[in-house]
Amino acid sequence: MATLPGLNDSLEPLNIGESSDQPLLVSLTVGTEWRVQVPQDARLTIKILSGIAEIFGTELALDVSYVFQGTNLAIYAVEDAEIEWTSSELITQTVSGDTNMPFVYNVHFALEKMRVSSFEGPRVLIVGDSCTGKTTLAKTLCAYALKIKAYQPLMINLNPQECIYSPPGCLTATPISDLIDVTYNTWGQSMTSGATRLHNKQPLVKNFGLENIHENRELYMTTMRSLADSVRLRLSNDAAIRRSGLIIDTPAMEQLSDDFSELKEIISLFKVNAIIVCGHDDSLAMRLNGVLPVEALTIVRVPTSSGVVKTDDVYKRALQRNAIREYFYGDSRTVLSPYTIGVDFDMLRVWQPKSALNTNDSPEALMPVEVNASNLQHAVVAITYSSRRASADEVLKSSILGYALIMDVNDAKKKLKVLLPVPGRLPDMAMILTAFRYLE
Amino acid sequence: MECEKVAQDFASILEELTCNSRPIITTLTKTAEENISCAQKIVDAIEKRIERCVPNQKLYAFYVLDSICKNAGSPYTIYFSRNLAKLYKRTYLLVDNQTRSSLIRLFQTWLQHSANSMGDHLFGKEALDAIEQFLIKASSLHQKKVAPPTVPGLLREIDKLTMLTRERISQSPQDPRLNTKIMVLKQLKQELQRESMAPQALQQVQSQLRKIFAQEQQVLQKQQQQLQLQKAQKHLLQHSQPSSTPSSQEQTPTPKDIESVPLFGSASISSSFFLNAGNVAPPSEPSRQLSRVQSLYEALSKEGLIHPIADQSVVTLDRILLQSSNDSQKTTLPPLSLLKDILGDVKSHFSVYGVDILNTSNLQLCQQTVIQENSAIIQLRHMLYRYKPNKCSSCGKRFGTSEDEKKEERDHLDWHFRINKRIKGTSGANGAAIKNIQSRNWYLDDTQWQNFNDEEIVSTTRSENDSVTLAKLDASSAHDGFSKNQQNKNIEPADNEANLIKKSVVVPESSEEMSFQCPICREVQSAVYDDDIGEWIWPNCVESQGKYFHSTCFHETIKDAPRQALHQDLERLKGLAG
Fold first, then answer.
1. Dmax (CA) of chain B
2. What ipTM does the predicted assembly reach?
3. Residue B27 and residue B139 share a domain
4. Which of A298, B10, B110, B358 has the fewest Cβ atoms surrounding its Cβ within 10 A?
């Protein structure tokens, strides 16, 4: 309840570096990386003038402007490359030849061989402590998988703090069937966004709704099991995905239990056959070797790149806030028009998962929430596919239709203003309150 | 009368002399020799021919004149001498440079003929003198046209001067001034080579050089005349050629020399013409060599041993290239980056040629594979990039060179175009672009997602009849207002046609065209813009099993469907029974 991303935003730039409105040039020699930290309020425009350069596995077009805001990125020079860039604010930028790219290539071609030699592609679980490059590795491996043949790796995000084709608080499974949009921290836009510059993706979104797994470990596992069920069925229907395999990104090890019980369940739920440990040293890989069924599993470690940035809560919240804004409003290139409607209090039925932060300890997984300003003001709510009058159990098992934002609650008039992504009446569905708030 | 006929025959044969034909010339010469009595008529015919014929044939008539004079001699020589200078001058002025040089060579043989016959001139001395004077004027006139002195030209002049001076040293080795002169010349040459001088300065150098040259030549001439005198006294009455000038025969400066190598004014020309008779000036070494080569060349080409340069020859090509490289319109090379690209593409093509991931060893997923540097993987990396050389200019996606991939690339580009048009939106009434209001969708429910295939999104070649899976919100909440612009998969019984026509479908994003063809009536229906929902829609349209129909047609068919199904079942039963 305490998380209020919009309010906690820091306006200070992350780092002080060079700044200029004039186009600047950076030349990269093959195998080096240009690492940039773009603060929230800065705008970095880059253009590849010559050579081959990629961002986390996605090759950039020549002479096309890419705009980045509030992100950390690394442009890797596959061949000598020249980049023209302009930034509105001070940014930190370095060029380094110390990357883990050779290892990533090695992993990719090992996975590619598995795809070529079997109809069952690799099912890769990526684990590691926070800030060890897990999501970056997942993104790069997905991007590479698209390149030689038109594979469609299924990207599974089990980290509710990460926003991949969704607002925060979700567990998602998304077939990566075309280019990843490098300018989005959310990897690009989902099918909910209509026409976009690149092909959008169709994610399966499961609402967890809380920020930290430990707030309700049981709910987390239930959500994940439900996701795994759908993934299993999709795999049985979809030969392309089955052959391309899964790339599973996980929360930081700190978020999971020390006995690896969640990991063990993930491995069996998704039939994982390869684990990639991201880390600076072998300690985690050693520990996993001891407790996991290594006969059926390959555990390898990919050394963490020296370019990994230690991100803080402020940065994470900013990313989550941007993901919520993108879901409703789109961005400068794809302007979406969300729809505001006024509804009476009794039109809403809102549930709330129990959380370790809640004081009352009820046996139910979902508890009804009283509709009032203190509970719902600025809240992001998940709209389920279950009817308004459905039971808590039904609501819990239901799929997610989408998200709505409670913009204003008037306790006196018993009226709310709700922002919907899709125009029309408020769906007559049960809703689940999430821990995320958004304020313009 | 006899003479008339001979002259007529002679003239008619002369008419045929349109090329340098030895047989004709011989025939004419013989006729002239045999009919000396008709000499006057024959001379008239030749003179007339020279006057009348086209300029490039005049030379051959001159050859006839020459041949007759040299073989038959008098009285032809006497007759020709009268008009020779006038004829020669007129012809010289009319013809091109090449013919002029031939004429000059011809004139030289006349002089030489005079020399060989010891003072007995072939033609009258006045005529020859007049021609010589004319030629001197003509060539000096020519020289005025010569371009301002250039450094290489001056260097050549210095070389010649040095040669002259050397020649003098060989004759009077005691003179110390001559050695210093050579030193000075050498220095001057070095100066010229080192520095670039203004044209005026070069002009000055040239004029001074010429002055020195003229002096030098005079001195040399005097010396040689003395020498000649001594020799003449020694070999009195000897008819043989002066032994000191064995090469004088070949030393025939062509007009080409005059054009390209300045021969230091009239002095040198007059010397080269006059002194051929005996007092030979030392011909400058380069020009002597040149003339030797020239005469060799002529001899060879006469024998047919030298072939003209063909169009396809390397020499021709070189000349053309030289010309075109001088031209302002130089061919611009493609930019370096493009050349690098091509090189990279070719390199990576060959580095992964015949490479197959399946057959590559050391690709087992294990710690060693991940950590170790693997040369096979370094090769394989190309497969992620230049292996597919065609890169989409707007998103960077790569495509290969096979037919399938090329088609995919075209479809991909088409898709970019369509989607960009859609994003950009339509132009408003005031000309400003109005951003299309984006159509938004809900997430799919679990079952829909499980059955979803991403081909629906990615395929760029989907037919317009394919549907796009959209969230089935209506299924569970049929009473809310969404059915207005959501596709309704459950076909509701339609009350009347008016209601049916109102049904519409939002043009799906994946549709390539803005129109659809109803599979029932085969009519093409184009999209209209619906202001209320801000979308392009197909009016009177329903979707069923991925196909779009006119809703009126569709419902008519549906009504008949049960009956048809019954009919089909009956047919099947009949088949089984039979």
1. 144
2. 0.88
3. yes
4. B358
